[in-house]
Amino acid sequence: MKKSMFVIAVSLFLFSGLSHAQEYGEGKVIGYGTSPKFVDDTTVAFVNRNSILTLVNLRDQSSKEMGNKPITDFRPTINGFVVWDWKPSRTTIRTVSPTGTVTSEIELSKDSRTGTGFSGPVILPDGTVGYWTISDRGMSYNILQQGNLSVSEACTQWIGDIKPTNPYEPKGDIVLRRVDNSASKVILPGRYTWSRSTFFDGSQQCGFKLLVVGPGGIITVVDTEADSNWQLGDTNSVIAVDTTINGVFYKMLLGQTMGRHASWSPNCMHIVATFQVAGIAEQEELSDIIYSDIQVFSAVDRSLKIQIETPDLFETKPDISSKGDVVCRTSKGEIRLYETGEAK
Fold first, then answer.
1. Are 110 and 90 in contact (CB under 8 A)?
2. Coil, helix or strand for 200?
3. Sheet harboring 102-109: ordered strands across?
4. Which of 53, 85, 166, 244 suits 121 as a labelling partner, its CA being 20 to 30 A distant?
5. Where are the domains positioned within the chain?
6. Contacts of 48 (CB under 8 A, 6+ apart)
7. Listed residue (101, 215, 227) closest to 165, CA to CA
8. Residue 257 confidence (pLDDT) above 80
9. What CATH number does the domain located at 11-342 have?
10. Whether pLDDT at 248 is above 90
11. For 8-20, what is each residue's pLDDT tens digit?
């Protein structure tokens, strides 16, 4: 399908501030690569074009590479980073200190003879880093780096899971299960997926709150302690009209506006998500995603705080800091930063 952009005038919708009256600037490019994430409020990490973990200091815009081994992806941890290099037959997982020193490394190979496989890195609520071993006998959690709890305590924590309706489609009921498999419970029945991953790895969990995607691209926040859930925003909130792009007329399909890639701030106060609008060109049968925007929500009062609309940019995988700054990757390969500031 075409990846054309729905070009509109730049407009920033200012709602009540995150902690004060705030707004976003137009954004600035701080690097080129994939998977941008905040390490803290003043540091962004991403995988650069050479597949090397890179840190950017937002105070002076300086950057440095962490090691020289290529990686597929990474996640910040309470003790540095966990990085991995994924290949179809094997995965190498490393834990890395804040200075770039490798503190542990393991290579996991699938065994088709025994039916044994492995997950990517899984971070538990207390910060413990590990991975799942998957076999005909079930799943077990293997610890690579201990978090704030003892090993025995860490493995009794609850973590979000999905119980698939069939083995060929990773959608199904949302479940909480103890890491040691001693108990589990369905908390949201239906055909749901994770908003960032189809395999539960802790990335969509903040305490007892989970982010999941239901039918039609509806992002749902599940509060398992309060036994409640609420929809994140309105899939028709992206303002779009029928338009002509490069001489081709597109009919907007508001019913196909979908939420994507929602994620938590480290302090669990904010949620950032992308919403995409679908359109269909004349004399074509298939629709195309032609526009996206970034929206920031309060996880406290559930309100939409700020909506960023940009021309010629197709943003993916946004991440948000505790103070509300947003970083994302664009279709141009840019790592783009949107900073909050006092409203004038």
1. yes
2. coil
3. 73-77, 80-86, 90-96, 102-109
4. 166
5. 11-342
6. 31, 32, 33, 54, 65
7. 215
8. no
9. 2.130.10
10. no
11. 222 222 233 343 3
